[in-house]
Design brief:
Layout (H helix, E strand, L loop, with lengths): L8 H8 L2 E2 L6 E3 L2 E2 H4 L12 E3 L4 E16 L6 E5 L4 E8 L2 E4 L2 E2 L7 H4 L3 E10 L3 E15 L18 E17 L7 H4 L4 E3 L3 E16 L19 E21 L3 E20 L3 E21 L3 E15 L5 E16 L5 H4 L5
Antiparallel strand pairs: 1-2, 2-3, 4-13, 5-6, 5-7, 5-19, 6-11, 7-8, 7-9, 10-11, 11-12, 12-14, 14-15, 15-16, 16-17, 17-18, 18-19
Length: 359
Amino acid sequence: MGKGLRGRWLLLILLIGSHFGSYGQGLSLLGIPLDTLLKTKIPRVDRAYITTYYRQLHFYIVSDRQDYTLRVAGSPNSLIYRPNLAWTLGPGINYKWFGTEITVKLPFFGYNNDLRGKTKPFGITINLNNRRYWLSTQYQFYRGFYISNPDILEANWFDHHSAYPYRDDLRSQTVSSRLLYQFNPLQLSTPAALLQREEQRKGASSWNVGTSLTYQLIRADSSIVPSALHDDFRPESRLLNLKSLAVGIDLGYSQTIVFRKHYFISFTVRPGATILLQQTHNELTGTESRLQLGWEGIASATIGYSSSIFYGGLYGSSTLMNRTFSQGLINTNADYIRLVFGKRIRYQPKGIIKQVPGL
């Protein structure tokens, strides 16, 4: 079912590890009542710039799509692999600490297994944040890629073929963790830019600094470069697998512009430098390791509307990874686009819902 339930699975762990206290104290963890652990604190902000809605029920419709590009550097042309990923659509809900989305794949907008082959995706994202710090950890796995520029194999490819070249054996795993520090959190709202539970009332900006740790494993049963292209790529590009570990720092700038009271445009740009350790194994030279200087980058933008009743908009981001200043073999980028339309509702829990800790 698309991404399925994207609720706070960490909460499930807490509930499993909890127990019933005695004398009517209710659920607790390590002796601490869950009502205390899960209590949503209203963040401290400059109210001339930001309005918070954490105590309101948020119901929304969301449609989103991930994309991923795996590029093998060549001369003059690169070989580009992509997974076959679908747009999703479904409802979502947020109230205090609780939030979940249930989405299903849309069988159109270019999603066609007969044309592009079948991709098996799996991903988990965990975000922990306060006003100044934002920690995001993500695991993403794909198996099954198609060559999105097939004319590199044969001119006018679709004059002779009905589907893209497809590799079921090609797999990619990425684990990344990023920590962001924002210098102006009281006036610039990151949740508002992400179409969440805050509203940016006046324009504001902030510098930010961050650090990242990214591990990637890309592997296939045979050379990532097809035999028909061996003459167009360096011998070391005939990879069976590539492992990379990148440690980076970045400096960025974020700004939100508000116009006509409730409409806004937000953007963030975060270029960074990395130290990249790569281990490769190919058909010719076996296993090799190299330490290189590299770079990475994150850019995002939002155009939206937000008021005390309705909110929504379009958010997009792009993350560039595995870039080196010279002699690069493979680089990747992850793109994401999200369309949201939601309503904020004044709500007081009743009955059994009122008994849930933290609500």
